[in-house]
Give the backbone structure.
Amino acid sequence: MKSLFTLCFTLITVSCLLAINPVKGKIETKKIESIEEGSAVIDSELNELLEASELIKAENLSYDEFSVTHNTIAEELNIESGVDTGLLEGSENSPVGIPGFWWGFCFGILGLVVVYVAMEDGQERKEQAKNALYGCIISTVVFTLFYVGLFALAAT
Amino acid sequence: MFMFLVNMSAQKYSQFKSDFTIIEKVVGDTSKSTILIGNVYYNSETDETKYAIDFPKEGEWHFLDSTLFVSLQDTNYIVKGSSEINSQSIFKNVLNSTSNDFGLEEQGYLITQIDKKGDQVFIEWQPPAAAKEFLSSVVTKLKNEDLLAVIFYTADKEILNTTYFEDYKLINSVKVPSRIKSHFTTTTSEVYKVISLDNVEIY
């Protein structure tokens, strides 16, 4: 009986220690390789766009100017003309009414994870994702008030 | 939330200013790209973030407390949101961050494995119970206490996102990555994105 008690105590203690302390050991090689290889993939995909952006900055071009003076590049890259497009373009799920493109910048990658999960799955899972990572941000009631041409009206 | 992974100095800063370029490419049934060039100003004391856009069209996105004011040429609108918007800003984390764990610990993630390869440290994290429905694990990569990369795995153990933090610069003793690259995989598309920060000022 005493041995059994000692064994149980030892097992519980070891379990607790393992739960509290991380294990210094091997992370799957595949996961580490994925991290090491992924950077070059992004560079490769975005190389032409990076060159285009450098061109735009160097020549201080507007979208219209860029489309005219470098029309071959503009057509080939199919660059959007607006800033309210992006990852969640046209989606009614766009959190807080802010297009996803901005989420990635305003809220970082954890924000984007939420956005993607929300876009990929059903309503229930979407809510779980939102609540898990953003809490009150997402549950906030959102309403949008448009007043188109206010400046134009004010000017007249 | 998202820690921009900076070594903090003792001094407290409240304002962040930078030029930025965001490049995004979505590859799916059709491919499309976005280039966004402008500058950003964040002030934690006034609780505001202002994005002034130069390309593709001039405009301004101004997050002030719980409200977003958008001005795009002849169109203006207001989005009433949450007061959490600015508090979750990456720039707040740039100024206040005390760790290089991507904010994972703060979110309830637990370290399960630590693996050292040369001067690089890989850490595997287990998501909190609420996130296990859609995430199985997260792995971060550090070197000299700077976060270099993070990778998110879906519940099906597929890669959801990989993000890299490059070209750290020391601004007023705060380390800021000047280039953030990201790749998302969804069921319908691949999304590649780079955020570049230039002329960063912290005060």
Observations:
- Confidence is low (pLDDT under 50) at residues 1-10 of chain B.
- The two ends of chain B are 21 Å apart (CA to CA).
- The CA atoms of residues 61 and 70 of chain B lie 5 Å apart.
- Chain B touches chain A through 92 residues (CB under 8 Å).
